[in-house]
Amino acid sequence: MTRSILPLTGRSLRAPKSSCVFIYDDSKAPPPPFSAPQGLASGFFSKPRDFSLPNSSWGPEMMRLYEQYNSQCGEETEGGENREGPWKRLPSYNRFLKYATGGVYLSRMIHKKARLFTRNNRDQGATFEYVLFFNSEEDKCVGVFQAGHLLEGPPGHVHGGAIATMIDTVIGTHATIACGPVLTANLNINYRRPIPLGNTVLLESSVDKKEGKKVFVTCKMTSSDGSKLHTDSTALFVSIKVSQLLLGS
Amino acid sequence: MTRSILPLTGRSLRAPKSSCVFIYDDSKAPPPPFSAPQGLASGFFSKPRDFSLPNSSWGPEMMRLYEQYNSQCGEETEGGENREGPWKRLPSYNRFLKYATGGVYLSRMIHKKARLFTRNNRDQGATFEYVLFFNSEEDKCVGVFQAGHLLEGPPGHVHGGAIATMIDTVIGTHATIACGPVLTANLNINYRRPIPLGNTVLLESSVDKKEGKKVFVTCKMTSSDGSKLHTDSTALFVSIKVSQLLLGS
Q1: Which end of chain A is more exposed for a tag (fewer CB within 10 A), N or C?
Q2: Interface predicted TM-score (ipTM) of this complex, two decimals
Q3: From the list B158, B190, B197, which residue is nearest A185 (CB)?
Q4: Residues A199-207, mean pLDDT to the nearest whole number
Q5: Residues 6 or more apart in contact with residue A19 via CB below 8 angstroms
Q6: What 3-state class would DSSP assign to A90?
Q7: Residue B227 contacts by C-beta under 8 Å, 6 or more apart in sequence?
Q8: Does A4 fall in a domain?
């Protein structure tokens, strides 16, 4: 429902730049010392695992779409120069904690074992394999998802809730880029065609309009070659202060 | 998206009665011999694990609601008599394959490693813990869900896609009881209040109307004590022949 403003990177992996966004991966290392939040911007957060990078479970269609967008991404060259590109790849981690600049909310925010729903399985290719790209000039966000065998609903096909999860991931990220921290207020999905397990799908979202704290987003999900429409959807997000989320729970 | 017509049971675990619905759990045993489908209704499907029964991860609120509905369920007594009750508990497995009465579709239906999205994690309490009950007199379906730590979206709270998954599970089951095999055609969710990780929620669905192949369902999700509204939603399902699903993929 809420999304971080993710740091935008090209091909190279960079540490998060925003002082109010921090990301870590404690799948291998012990949890960082949250009692010392002054260290959040450096040191032990320098090398989280970025799940949006290719792994051996990615099939040909997933790789093809990844390369299609990644080849148009800005990146830092080996010589240290920045290459321009219309797209940015959005790195993805198995958890984000936001606005943790002090200890006042930490005790409520931290569930040491919590993991992002879409990144909670370590078995590569078993659930959601995905990467998101953003084009600031066109204000477009795309997500490339490969549906693993643990996402089954109808026999041999992806569960409707897993499809909704893919959509929420793309449009929630887009709304957050547009407006900062948001909560989903409405999600309306038309399911047009089932998705076989193992298939790769392409999601494309657009921000339709902003009205005060509201942002309206639409999203279309097609087969990887664009020939089949799987879903079309609309969503409304509302800007929030994260303190609202923490105090209101 | 599609749901089986689940066999309805009380407290006691029974083998599925319908000849066109079969369910198995191959998490411990080797896969059954699908090349011999004539054996589907007996033998190796007699003792699947029913995930809707309590386990040690269920908290007090989950247990309270389970007992509240289960105490009103019809059941077979030790003496072999049937006790009447308005509610039925719906057993839940980690996969269903349906209508597999012949070999013609099996090769397309069977993904040996596939698991139901909501039952794909063996770590009790980590993702979705839930049980569904159905009241045929009132035509009501309820779901009691406990949200595990691997369902995180906003820090410390349940992902919007996981919430949609809970809703789809309850209303999809209800629509299937009402109309047989269905596909979700539309799902429209209003998110009213975030759900903290670990909380138990109660979902209640009603069939509003049926029109030909269409069935309209509504669903309300509240805190376990009913005092807080988390979501309200509407959905449209369309009856299908399963062969459509298999041939259309």
Answers
A1: C
A2: 0.80
A3: B190
A4: 98
A5: A41, A101
A6: strand
A7: none
A8: no
Report yes or no on B232 lying in a domain.
Answer: yes
Task: Note whether B184 contacts A191, CB cutoff 8 Å.
Answer: yes
Taking CB atoms and an 8 Å cutoff, what residues of chain B touch A110?
156
- DSSP summary character for residue B139: T
User: A162, B246: Cβ pair inside 8 Å?
Assistant: no
Domain hosting A56: range is 26-247
Contact B109 A151 (CB under 8 A): no
Nearest CA in chain A to B148: A114
Select the more confidently predicted residue: A95 or A56: A56
Cβ within 8 Å of residue B239, ≥6 positions away: B179, B180, B181, B182, B213, B214, B215
Domain assignment of residue B6, yes or no: no
Residue A37, sorted as left (phi over 0), alpha (psi -120 to 50) or beta, turns out to be alpha
d(C-alpha B108, C-alpha A156), whole Å: 7
Q: Is residue B11 part of a domain?
A: no
Q: What integer pLDDT is reported at residue A116 of this predicted model?
A: 93
Distance CA B232, CA B221 (A): 6
Q: List the CATH number of the domain containing A50.
A: 3.10.129.10
Using DSSP, how many helices (H) and how many strands (E) does chain A show? 4, 11
pLDDT over 50 at B232, yes or no: yes
Quick: pLDDT tens for B132-158.
999 999 999 999 999 999 999 988 899
Q: Which of B109, B117, B151 sits opposite A150 (nearest CB)?
A: B117
Q: How many domains does chain A have?
A: 1
Contact B109, B158 (CB under 8 A): no
